[in-house]
Amino acid sequence: MLAALLAAGAAHGGEPGAATPQPGPPGPSAPLVMCYEDVEQRPWSSPDASGLNFELLRRVEKQLGERFVYAPKPWRRCIEELRLGTVDAVVAAADAKSRRSFAAYPLRPDGSADPARALYSDSVNVFLRAGGRGSWDGHTLVAPNQEVAVQSGYLISSVLRERGYRPRELVKSAEDALRLLQTGMFDVALLQGAEASRLAVSDPRFQGKVVQTGPPYWVLPLHLAFNRAAYRRNPQRAHAIWEAIAAARASADYRRLAAEAGVPEP
Fold this sequence. Notes:
2 domains; D-Maltodextrin-Binding Protein, domain 2; 33% helix; globular
């Protein structure tokens, strides 16, 4: 009887001044559905869910007893589904004010996204049509008619627009963007990822017709970004995953794997 009365009192808030019960560690949860881009971004990701990002996330799954389900889609669609809450998270998203209303990132005390808990950092590089009228000296980007080819849905388009350029999001892959230079449709392309650099050097279609120039236009950390509603349902789960990402990135076996893929500092 006493136990029943105590239980009833606890259900109505308990004794004044009693300690508030603290939530324990999250219990078994449903798998998290994660969207990722369905084009090659080697060595980080490929459409078949291979690459360093997935090696890293597999280590996180093992450490935390998690299960992730991956959905490859065009990048613009991934961001839209993150906004709608159709997916729980997206793999390798840059932070931006325009995304903060629907996306949650690991944050530092000053409110900025924490690069230490990002999946990796990537570069947006400048590619020019050989013999064209574009140029980049590390400070000033010159593009005829201010037109710059970019990958569809990438944040660089917003950056360029704010700086007075006219980004043209006609293609989603680095390969197709380089074709736009090769055929003379554009003189300048700003492309994210090592895949564009690899193709420009090694693919006979682009050798002598497309050149990568100067330092990167932009370097940005890319995160596992959660849908904000999914984050609110279990913030401890999201933070545990972000912390595990940082730990896995620093591990000797992942660093060895990254070095074998040509990434000296993952």
